[in-house]
Amino acid sequence: MKLTLTLWQRLLGLLPGELTVHETEWLISPQQHMPLMAQRRAVIIINRARLFAMLFALLTPLWIAVDVVALPMELAAQLAGMRLMATAAFAWLVFGHHSDGTLRHAYRAMATLFAIPTLFYIASHLLLTRYHLQGLSAAIGTGYAFLPFVLLAGFAIFPLTLLESATFASPILIADGLAWLLQWQVIDWPSFSGAFWLLTLISAVATLASMSQLAFMIALVNQAVRDTLTGCFSRRSAEEMLDLQFTLAQRARRPLSVAFIDLDHFKSINDKHGHEAGDRALQSLTQAIGDTLRHGDILTRWGGEEFLLLMPETDRQQAQQALARLRRHGLGRRPDGSPLTASIGLTESQADQAASWQQLVEIADARMYRAKQQGRDRVVAADDEAPPAAAPADVPELLAQPL
């Protein structure tokens, strides 16, 4: 595994530590990408697809003048009609294509972008084979054969995984092979083999460039969205993810649970042992929570000793079970060796009928304070919960200390 990671880093131009072993898997398939990463990448892909389409929309009709001068008039007229249709399709992609910023729409934009010139290439190739061109006309006609090379090189501007690059490049390679095979009776096999090998090589280089872009994007996003002390997500990124997850949950009518976690008596750690000890306590907490996080759960630092745990596709009962497992596992240690404890407020979007993610956080925050008032080191998951009969036996000496 270490050799594989080193090879990836050398190929993609990364420095050691920029991507973890787990994150290198993100370069293969998008299935493991966190929602925030997927959303930002979708926006980039859509914007670059529109930029590419705008370039094609401007340049495609300009070549009509060259065709009129160099090609037979009948052929030039047919090619001009095809170029105008392609230009209209590119213009629609720039101005008429609507997107909600998801990967599904990003894939649709890319598929449309590359389908237009691919179809144009096949149609123009079949049309040009009907004419016996010579001299300048032959040179201009040969230029149409370079369109697949341009398309495959264009993949380099998109941050794509290996599987995504292969998926989008395959139709272009197949279209090129099909265009040649339609003339199999007169095909020049050495020329075809050489051209197809070059196309494959360009495709491989473009794929490597796309993966390199993705790798650097992952590294930059991690630096931007992570809290430098604890390594979990920062408040700014938490707000973005809450907005995204709440929207998805409302659209799919699925539950979204949020736990507001506040360390008990954190101020006493800073006062008695110093801020460095407090920092280590926070790191101990995030490490302990990270060890028990389920796939899809998201831990964020909301501020100071406050953390939000986002649990998509999780109802109240499932969230309570997850938090119970977390508390059994432990939340780390205080500087004196005693266990860290936390007051936790839990809310769930459907059960609490939250109208926004802000309201979801407010409810969880209020319940966290109720947990403090009831003796700390507990979870409050509903407004009508009765307080337990007694406080936990392992921290009675701390109950009189400040928050």
From TrEMBL:
Keyword Thylakoid: no
Listed Low complexity bias regions: 387-403
A GO BP annotation: cell adhesion involved in single-species biofilm formation
GO cellular component: plasma membrane
Record field: transmembrane: 49-69, 75-95, 107-128, 134-158, 165-183, 195-221
CDD domains per the UniProt record, alphabetical: GGDEF
Gene3D superfamilies linked to this entry: 3.30.70.270
Ranges for region Disordered: 374-403
Domain GGDEF: 254-384
Ligase recorded as keyword: no
Gene Ontology MF annotations: diguanylate cyclase activity
This enzyme's EC code(s): 2.7.7.65
Keywords: Membrane, Transmembrane, Transmembrane helix
One Pfam family hit: GGDEF
Leader peptide range in chain numbering: none
Descriptive protein name: diguanylate cyclase
Lineage, broadest ranks: Bacteria, Pseudomonadati, Pseudomonadota, Betaproteobacteria, Neisseriales
